[in-house]
Amino acid sequence: xxxxxxxxxxxxxxxxxxxxxxxxxxxxxxxxxxxxxxxxxxxxxxxxxxxxxxxxxxxxxxxxxxxxxxxxxxxxxxxxxxxxxxxxxxxxxxxxxxxxxxxxxxxxxxxxxxxxxxxxxxxxxxxxxxxxxxxxxxxxxxxxxxxxxxxxxxxxxxxxxxxxxxxxxxxxxxxxxxxxxxxxxxxxxxxxxxxxxxxxxxxxxxxxxxxxxxxxxxxxxxxxxxxxxxxxxxxxxxxxxxxxxxxxxxxxxxxxxxxxxxxxxxxxxxxxxxxxxxxxxxxxxxxxxxxxxxxxxxxxxxxxxxxxxxxxxxxxxxxxxxxxxxxxxxxxxxxxxxxxxxxxxxxxxxxxxxxxxxxxxxxxxxxxxxxxxxxxxxxxxx
Amino acid sequence: xxxxxxxxxxxxxxxxxxxxxxxxxxxxxxxxxxxxxxxxxxxxxxxxxxxxxxxxxxxxxxxxxxxxxxxxxxxxxxxxxxxxxxxxxxxxxxxxxxxxxxxxxxxxxxxxxxxxxxxxxxxxxxxxxxxxxxxxxxxxxxxxxxxxxxxxxxxxxxxxxxxxxxxxxxxxxxxxxxxxxxxxxxxxxxxxxxxxxxxxxxxxxxxxxxxxxxxxxxxxxxxxxxxxxxxxxxxxxxxxxxxxxxxxxxxxxxxxxxxxxxxxxxxxxxxxxxxxxxxxxxxxxxxxxxxxxxxxxxxxxxxxxxxxxxxxxxxxxxxxxxxxxxxxxxxxxxxxxxxxxxxxxxxxxxxxxxxxxxxxxxxxxxxxxxxxxxxxxxxxxxxxxxxxxxxxxxxxxxxxxxxxxxxxxxxxxxxxxxxxxxxxxxxxxxxxxxxxxxxxxxxxxxxxxxxxxxxxxxxxxxxxxxxxxxxxxxxxxxxxxxxxxxxxxxxxxxxxxxxxxxxxxxxxxxxxxxxxxxxxxxxxxxxxxxxxxxxxxxxxxxxxxxxxxxxxxxxxxxxxxxxxxxxxxxxxxxxxxxxxxxxxxxxxxxxxxxxxxxxxxxxxxxxxxxxxxxxxxxxxxxxxxxxxxxxxxxxxxxxxxxxxxxxxxxxxxxxxxxxxxxxxxxxxxxxxxxxxxxxxxxxxxxxxxxxxxxxxxxxxxxxxxxxxxxxxxxxxxxxxxxxxxxxxxxxxxxxxxxxxxxxxxxxxxxxxxxxxxxxxxxxxxxxxxxxxxxxxxxxxxxxxxxxxxxxxxxxxxxxxxxxxxxxxxxxxxxxxxxxxxxxxxxxxxxxxxxxxxxxxxxxxxxxxxxxxxxxxxxxxxxxxxxxxxxxxxxxxxxxxxxxxxxxxxxxxxxxxxxxxxxxxxxxxxx
Lengths: 382, 910
Description:
The complex is a heterodimer of chains A (382) and B (910). With 382 residues, chain A is α/β, with parallel strands linked by helices.
């Protein structure tokens, strides 16, 4: 009935089209702005070796939560997808694949060298950065690949402990108990330590091997190592195994000095080690008693968030996530993430700045750590 | 539009009420659900509390047994512990430590653990300081590698530690899961999951310490909250387990928790939607029934608006619609009738427009109006200001006005051969310099919607015409001035007539003024001449009685000289006044001009006199002395206008005045002799031109002019039936043209006066005058000439005396103006007594008018007062001698001498 001169009875099709177009543009724009930036985290979150994974996860979560609270990366929220590799190679590959398929821009993990070694071919093939907070096997050094590490190769740790044992402590003989479950880490560590110790004039008596989770009689391991009458023992194992070994060693030889690989440097080591771990020596890049402001702030936040103090894995998980987020903030459009991380002049760390070389490797200062009255404490440099 | 409004009005209240109902019901139900959820949570927490207290009680019982000393042997202790563990499968393991925190007993038996040093382990150290009871956070069991937690009960001799199976807690929360939707969970004091439906969360020690519900519970408030949890929007109820500080939570996805709310809301919404649908259906049916007739009426209305007035009636509908239909039908008829009337009116208007004898046109002012609006000229004040500041504005506006229609009379007025010549721009009709008139037009249109002005236009042939233009905005064009109907009246002839009439009125006024002044001057001159007459006479009489050597003779001569000067003055006055013409004779004006010009030229060497005289110039009947006076006055004025010298051109011509010029000069049409006196002097400006013929008006310095020269010249010309016309241009000179009526008679030869005194006589003369002094002086003068004198001091006395003494009276000198009888009446009376009475008329007035009439009736002569003795003697002798000669002729002709006494009467004017 409308003859074209009266009032229109509804919105004409062209007006509908215009409204819908504007709505579409608005929605697309909004979706683009609010689409989250996905990061992956993968580590061992269950079982005997879960202490590194859980701490690393907590550290990474705290960094992401902080970043989201301050507006995300270039206005985009960050979503942390967390997976458990159960410290099994096949599971590690599976969860890495899941994360890559989910569109993560990079993966933080794995937390052990063994899992890192298992995942490396996949990430290199898929050209996805694998930023490991704690993997420190020397075999990863100098490789131009998609693995980037925040912890230097354990050769430095081996050298540091060997140097201390031979030059500072003056021990002449050492026996080692080594976990084969993380052979990618433990074996090079033990070998390097032996070479360094012997180079410094010491002598390695023998190495007692075991596989975490497969043995329940730690006393036999201790007995076998002590039977060589070493001046000191070297334990290359995770926290729980290390603590239990210390318990058994102390029952047999209450005074023998014990050197422990940094892998065990977690609260679980203290919880299970009790009085048996008093006086053991670590070499680590983190000093849990550090008074540096950046670290103290992180320590406070972590304590509030998880009701427990952070360990070195938590610190490195936090640093890994923060380093990755800072790089993405500098170049929110993405691009080659690896190039944003490597060969940078300096990255802010919780206990001092660090730099990542063109192979994705890092160098940091080391401290000697001991256990005193149920807590970790740094020793003065020797 | 109506339909959408109708639908909106019907639906909106339902929608609002529905939304309010849904919101209210949902809110209430959600609160109930939250409360119920919290009650479940508290109940679960209570169960957990009760369970844990029971387990603590067992450990305390174990401690009591150890303290009691009943178990003296270590083996007995191990057996006891194994027995307890067997009955308490919710413990994974039991340990007994000594005061140094060295493990002394375990169940199940584990030699590896015996002797393990737990000194310095924080949880056991804390257990000793916390009233003997401590719950550890969750940790990985060294034995199982699975998460676990321990509860330590301190005793005097050591500590009993139980390692709890978290699976037991999971069984407790499972009942919540099985009871309904959602799940329950237990978190330790750090927020780490220790019991959860998803075992992986427990295995991975998922920490929820950052969740809002956890922080609320930690701050001492339990309750229910809606928050995101584990990737879903959930209703979370949480409370604490007082014994351990753990947090028990029961969570459901909102979809599950509020399913009943959504169902209820959905039922309400569906109910309302159905109600709305039903209402809408009914409303639309009703609306359709209402609208269809309205649509029909709308279509009919459009058809009527389009000019088709045949209204199609519709089927009966609601009575209101029927009423509207009927009204529309009536409206259609009315509109049709009015349209027809309008068409006839329009046709009539067109006919009137075309056939009107008045020039009409329609013009489009919309361009000019839009232009003025763009300049902000929305009010007369603003328009005035703009016009004052920008005069060119109107020129431009003129270019924007369009002529859109003209009638036949307009074509004739503007001398156009066709309509197309006038349509379009007004530039051809209104030159740019005439467009200032547009200002008043615009102002008047703005204020009154019409204008009425007089201006001048150009015809297409370039002829300027005076027009009265009246314009009026056509109805419907008041805002944009799109059509202005204009009538144009040709005022050219009317204005010309008006101008002529105004000029004639000015001339008439001038003439009347001059006549009044002439009358006044004549009266003065008359009285003055009488006085001069007495003075003149007395002086003459005294001189006659005194020897020339007498010292008084000089004074008396001086008196006579001054009387003559005074007489000249009155002569001037009389020249101006009517009746000042004395002796009129046919005169050759060429000779008069030549003689006066020659005489004047001798006295003004700096002036070149150029004379152009027409041969065969007609004669004119003039008083020569007066015309000479006129010419001399004109020469003197020309001289004064050329102080540095110049050329004076004197010319004569025969002219025939047509009616127009004669009317303008207030003279009779006919032949005239023209005498022009043209100078090359300063000229006369317009302000002076109107006053130059007034008596005593002069522009000359004191002593150089009396102000009577041109006035008397004007009077003399008028007295002769002629006129003086002046043409002058300031800076170029003036031309005075004297026009005198031409006559066919030519000038006779000049007769010379004979001697100072004519011979004396002995006749009897009756002197009549109302002035006693005149009578007295006249008597002495006449008697001094030898005449016998009778006197009468009035007309009646004179007639009486003449009746008695007619036989002896030879001449009557008769005054013309007297109180009782005028000179004319007396003359008629005397003529009745003696037809051949000899009368000499005397007056202080001029000969014109009454005197001339008396002369025509038989009076023998006129004597202008004052007169001297010689003039008097000459006039008397002229009459008496003529009478004597006549009588001699008659005697010789008849051979007999009549006894009739021939009496000469001299009339003396009063």
